[in-house]
Amino acid sequence: MRSGLPILKAHGSQNDILVVEGRPGDYAAEADVPHLVRQLCDRSGPLGGGDGVYFVDLGPAVPQAAFFNPDGSFAKLCGNGMRCVGRLVLDTRDAERAVVRAGSSDFVVLRAESTPEGVRQTAVEMPKVDFDPAEPVVAVAQPHVDTPLPALHPTYGLTALAVPNDHLVAVVEKFDEAELVATGERITAATDVVPRGANLSFVFPLDSGEIYVQTYERGAGLTPSCGSGVVASRAVWSRLGMAGAGERITVRNPGGVATAWLTGDPAAWQATLQGNASYVYRADVDLAAVVAGTLASVRRDTFVDEVEAFAQSRENNHAVLHAAGVHPSVG
After folding, report:
1. Strand partners of residue 168
2. Contact call for residues 214 and 182 (beta carbons, < 8 A)
3. Domains along the chain?
4. Distance between CA 225 and CA 257 in Å, rounded?
5. 279 - beta bridge partners?
6. Is residue 187 within 8 Å of 221, Cβ to Cβ?
7. What is the pLDDT of residues 220-262, one digit of tens each?
8. Burial class of 46 by CB neighbour count within 10 A (0 to 12, 13 to 18, 19+)
9. Which residue in 33, 112, 179, 232 is deepest, having the highest Cβ count within 10 Å?
10. What gap in Å lies between CA 168 and CA 137, rounded to an integer?
11. How far is the C-alpha of 170 from the C-alpha of 159, rounded, in Å?
């Protein structure tokens, strides 16, 4: 077991990710990993907390990654976090393309051009989109496309899909954050209609072919960005005939700006998600102190240029959203 804990804090669209080089078992017994993750993600702690921890073993030819939610539970994927892991792999190997394995799935990660503000970007080929999953998202006939479910919302057409986690998506003529929250809460309560619960995204068309997507995440509520929510929304946008599958659509969230496009068979589109993978700081901390909750301070090596570049990008993004009448409460 190691005594030191090397941390890279990064974020994708303001989803804060603590990236730890190595496997979970290098730092804790399997039963103790959830506690370690909770300590690392504690927002009141000296690390500033995070929205999850990605462990990544850079040694194998195909690096192995494992993601844990801030409550310590294991998750198959964090799309925004995978961009951060992908960038670390690309930087470490001085490569333009690499494959990262998370669980039983392999993800192609690609270096992408920086934004005009100087924000570093990575693209990730996400899991295939499924409008007719073996385990239905909603307890009605599949596929369920752009059709109201009165128990969830009286008028909005909802589309159900898996990417692979469950999503419901509605295209709206006017964005109302309170309505998003209320509908998301109804989804949580309506277990007879949505047996496992689902993330809910509202898609609001902007000028110049861009779209605004905000997601009410199952178990988390409103978040600055949801990578799988962006992918689900982009797929629904083409399923409803609003854009060709191969078009690179700019997707704005409260947390940042991404680009998404689709390739392959419309029955199982392959989505690519491109967006920021910004480094915030590096730190080496004492593992025992983190576990015990006695870590008092952290010496951070901050990526000042990257932090400032993203701050400018965030300001520009919010100016566009405000001009469109969108004033998110998060991000």
Report:
1. 160, 200
2. no
3. 4-124+277-299 (3.10.310.10), 159-268 (3.10.310.10)
4. 9
5. 10
6. no
7. 889 899 999 999 999 999 999 999 999 999 999 999 999 999 9
8. middle
9. 232
10. 8
11. 7
Distance CA 212, CA 202 (A): 8
pLDDT in tens, 67-114: 999 999 998 889 999 999 999 999 999 999 999 999 888 999 999 999
How far apart are the C-alpha atoms of 320 and 259, rounded to whole Å? 16
> Which of these, 31, 80, 32, 74, lies nearest to 55 by C-alpha position?
74
Residues 161/169, Cβ–Cβ less than 8 Å: yes
- Taking Cα atoms as reference points, which of 127, 226, 210, 208 lies closest to residue 168? 226
Q: What is the pLDDT of residue 170?
A: 98
pLDDT for the residue 3: 82
What value does the mean pLDDT take over residues 286-298? 95
Buried b or exposed e, range 101-126, using 16+ CB within 10 angstroms: bbeeeebebbbbeebebebbbbbbbb
For residue 101, the surrounding DSSP H or E stretch is: strand 97-102
E strand or H helix that includes residue 123: strand 121-125
pLDDT at 104: 84
3-state secondary structure 5-23: EEEEEEEECCEEEEEEECC
pLDDT of the residue at 103: 85
**In terms of Cα–Cα distance, which of 30, 59, 321 is closest to 330?**
321
At 133 the pLDDT is: 95
pTM, full prediction = 0.94
| Best CA proximity match to 153, nearest among 172, 126, 132 | 172
pLDDT tens digits for 181-207?
999 999 999 999 999 999 999 999 998
Are 52 and 67 in contact by the 8 Å Cβ rule? The answer is yes
